[in-house]
Amino acid sequence: MTDLRALEPLAPIADGVVVPYYLGDRKLRIALARIDGRLYSFDDLCTCGGDPCPLSSGLLTGRTIMCQCHGSRFDVTSGAVLNGPASRPLSSYEVQELDGNLAIGL
Question: What InterPro entries does the record tag this protein with (predicted)?
Fold first, then answer.
């Protein structure tokens, strides 16, 4: 069973937008994206192995996000690598939204 954790209040996330979020106690950067009305969450840092590059600054096209540093592409719904140089998928996390409040499964 996934442990759900409430996130600090965020401004509403519009469709087609990716926002970063930092979980300080876990030292973990995640990204939240809304696509076709549904929220997704995944690691915010690209897995290409170079300098840390935030995917929340990348290009979101449909369900694909592209790393701005090296061009790796990922499916935000599953974290799967679609094009390298990254070879490791992103971790993805369950997101629940209730009355505008968000909780993430870790």
Answer: Rieske_2Fe-2S, Rieske_2Fe-2S_sf
Reference 66, options 93, 94, 23, 33; nearest CA is 33
Q: By the 8 A CB rule, do 94 and 38 touch?
A: no
Under CATH, which architecture does the 4-105 domain have? 3-layer Sandwich (2.102)
CA distance 79 to 100: 24
Pairing type for strands 38-43 and 92-93 reads: antiparallel
Mean pLDDT of 13-29: 89
CB atoms within 10 A of CB 99: 4
* Tokens describing residue 78: 């599953």
Percent residues over pLDDT 70 in the chain: 98
Q: Is the dihedral of CA 49, 28, 57, 73 positive or negative?
A: positive
pTM: 0.88
